[in-house]
Amino acid sequence: MSIQTLSQTAVADKKQESINAQSLRRTLPFRDISMIDEKTIEYKGTRIGITKQAFKSLLALVGMSQTFADKFSKLFNPETKAQFINTMKNAMASNAGKLSNVTLVLNPISKAVILFTKEDKLQISNDQMIQVAENMISDSSMGVSRWSTDPTTGIITIDAHNPKAEFEVLGLSNEVFTGGVTFRNSPMKGFEVMPYVNRQWCTNGLTTAMAQEAYQLHSLDNKSMESFFENMQQLRRNNYAPEGFADRVRQANNTPASLREMQFAHGLISKHAGERAEQWVPLQENLNEYNKAGFEKLTTDQMKMAKTNQSVWSVINGVTHFSSHGTGIIDTNMQQHDEADIQTRIGNLIGKKSFDHENTMPNPFSKEQLQQTGALLN
Fold first, then answer.
1. 12 and 134, same structural domain?
2. Containing domain of residue 235, as a range?
3. pLDDT per position as a tens digit, 224-269
4. Radius of gyration for the chain, computed over Cα atoms and rounded to the nearest angstrom
5. Using one digit for the tens of pLDDT, what is the confidence trace for 172-192?
6. 3 inside domain
C-alpha cells in the first residue's frame, strides 16, 4: 500500500489553519489570579476558562506532585480545591514567596488558558516552525502525509516521509518501513522534531521520540540551527531509520505485552472507538481470562506482572492501525489531530527503556514439576 501525500492546495489550507492557531501569552501577577474551580479562574473581575492540562500545570506550579494531585482531585470537592490552591498560590506570590508573576498561555480561538508557566520563555512561533519544516521537506524530497492542528491545545503536527527511504527489520518478514520526520510545535513543549516511520504492510504511521535523532529546537539562532541540521543530516544518512529502531521492533515482537501496557494502548483508542476498541487491542478478552482464574480488580503492580496473549509489537500495531485507518472502518469522533496524538503516544511505548516483560526470566519448570521440599520440613 502506498502512502498518500497531501496536495499543494491542502497543504496551503493546513498552513493557514496552523498560523491562525498561534497561542497567546500574557504574564500577570500571580496574586491577581483567583481559582474559582477546576475549569475557571478569575482575573480582575473577568472569568476565564482553563483546560484540564492547564489545571494540571497550575497544580505543578503550586508545588503539587502528580501523585498528590491525582489524589487531591478525587478526594476534595470543587470549593475545597479552589480554596486550597488559592492559599498555596497566595503564599507563593507573597514577598517571601518564590513566584511573583505567572505566564498564561491561551488558545487564540476559545481564549481558554491551556498552560500556566513560571517564565515567558521565547517560543518558536507556528510561522517560524512551518518555515523550518517546509525548507527541510523540500531539501529532503519529502511529501507531507498529514498536517494537523489541535483546536484545544494548539499543537501543530506535520508528518512527512521520503518515498525512497525504505528500510527493513532483518529477521522479521513483512517488516519494511518508509522513513520520514514528524515536526511538532506545542505551547507546552516547544518545537520538536522526531523520526516518523510508516509500516508498508498496512501503512500504519508511528512517531517515536526513542531515538537520538529526536531533537528539541529552542531558538533559531545560528548555533541552534547548525546543531539541528547536523542531527537531521545524520538521520538522512541513516535513510531515516531511527537508531536502534530495528532492535526494538524485534524485541517488541518477541515480548508478551503486560496487561498494564495493553491497558495503556487500549485507552488511547477506546475514547474514539468505544467497545469496538477490542477489535484492535483485546484488553477485555485478556481481563476475562484473568477473572476466570480468580484475579479480579488487579492493582497496577499486578497489571504490570500479568502477561497477555499479544506481543508488544502486536499491541503497538493495533493502535497505529486504528489511528491510520479507523475512520474508514467504523464511525468515530477521531480527528486528524487525534490521529497524530495517538501515534506520538504509542511511539512512547516502543521507546520504553524496558518493556514490562522484556527482562523476565523464563520458568524451566512446569506447574507439575514444582516441589514442596521446604514445606514438608518439620
1. yes
2. 8-17+125-242
3. 888 888 888 888 888 888 888 888 899 999 999 999 999 999 999 9
4. 24
5. 877 888 999 999 999 888 899
6. no
The dihedrals phi and psi of 334, each to the nearest 5 degrees, come to -70, 130
C-alpha cell at 212: 537520538
The per-residue b/e assignment along 351-371, b for 16 or more CB within 10 angstroms, e otherwise, is: beeebbbbeeeeeeeeeeeee
Of 16, 185, 38, nearest to 113 (Cα)? Answer: 38
Grid cell, residue 304, equals 504490570
Residue type (1 letter), 19:
I
CB 200 within 8 A of CB 342: no
Question: Cell 475549569 belongs to which residue?
Answer: 39
Q: Hunting for cell 498496512 — which residue is that? A: 202
Residue 253 to residue 310: CA distance in whole angstroms: 9
- The answer to whether residues 291 and 253 touch, using CB atoms and an 8 Å cutoff, is no
> Residues 206, 197: contact at Cβ < 8 Å?
yes
Number of domains composing the chain:
3
Per-residue pLDDT reduced to its tens digit, 71-129: 777 777 878 888 888 888 888 877 655 778 899 999 998 899 999 988 766 678 999 99
How far from chain centre, in Å, is Cα 219?
23
- Residues 77 and 108 reside in one and the same domain: yes
